[in-house]
Amino acid sequence: MAIGDSTRINTNIAAFNALHSLKFINRNLEISQLKLATGLRINEVADDPAGFVISRRLGARSRGLSVAYDNVGTAKNVLAIAEGGLLNISDILITIKEKVTSAASDTLGSAERNAIKTEIDQLTSEIDDIVEETTFNNISLIDGTYSVSYQTGEGTTNTLHFAITQSASSSSLQVDSSNVSSKVFTATGASAALAKVNTAIETVSDMLQNIGASVSRLTVKEATLSIAITNTDATKSRILDADIAMEQLKSTRLQILQQTATAQLAQANVVPQNVLALFR
User: pLDDT-derived band of residue 152, with 50, 70 and 90 as boundaries?
Assistant: First the structure.
């Protein structure tokens, strides 16, 4: 920075120097106050071109991971619905087993067996109603047709596929009228029907086990995504966000310098008038 000669009045170098410093301080003060107002270290690309690009990429990654996290939650909700339907069917099958076990005794008369048949028919009808009503967004979950893939990451290959290929309907489980209720009129027939019911209970238990394993897998994925989102946001914050305490200190310092630079500019503008003393 040039040092002026106060005896030369056409060019006031001291005033120019003070003005330059004041403009520089004002610019930095504006930047500092903007960071305090927005909470961001980078408010435009020029502040840090590389940091800006990196923070944008991290932001896009975080948003993609957040959507994947929501997808995992949706998948768990769907499986919970399927699980609820299967648990109800399992309870019904256990009740049917009790009825069929009673019919396997030779001590029952025809009236009791007719009553048992009616109860079993009502229960198997309830199983089919549950299968029909266990849906998500009009998609049947336990009729053997459910097969979907969920996006569980930011990459195109980050998907999880789930399928419930076993139907829980009474006919698929072989507990419909032709296999169970029509057999309860004799002890021998009831024994054969009991074997069908036991197999159905095992089938539904296997379906529940598979769902439980899938939910456990999703829970692990959910935790992994949560950690990835947190770490990505933390990295983005270190690059993009302002250090408020530091910026406040910087702003206070610049405000003091602004006042001193303004005072020096005013003083520099007065100095050339001292030359007039030579003409007195």
Answer: confident
CA separation for the pair 72, 216 (Å, rounded): 11
CA 278 to chain centre: 80
- Residue 93 in domain: yes
Tens digits of residue pLDDT in 208-231: 999 999 999 999 999 999 999 999
Cα–Cα distance measured from residue 88 to residue 181, given in angstroms and rounded to the nearest whole number: 20
Q: Is 1 inside a domain boundary?
A: no
Q: Given this model, what pLDDT does residue 37 score?
A: 86
Q: How far is CA 19 from the centre of its chain?
A: 53
Q: What's the rounded mean pLDDT across residues 120-140? A: 96
Burial-class residue 199 by CB neighbours within 10 Å (0-12, 13-18, 19+): middle
**What is the structure's pLDDT at 10?**
59
pLDDT at residue 3 is higher than 60: no
Q: Which of 254, 259, 256, 242 is nearest to 34 (CA)?
A: 242
Give the structural domain span for 23: 13-39+242-279
Say whether both 104 and 231 belong to one domain: yes
Give the angle 78-83-85 at the CA atoms, nearest 5°: 100
Q: Calculate what percentage of the chain has a pLDDT beyond 70.
A: 92
Query: Which is nearest to 233 in space by CA: 73, 8, 62, 97?
Result: 62
**pLDDT classification of 6: cutoffs 50, 70, 90:** low
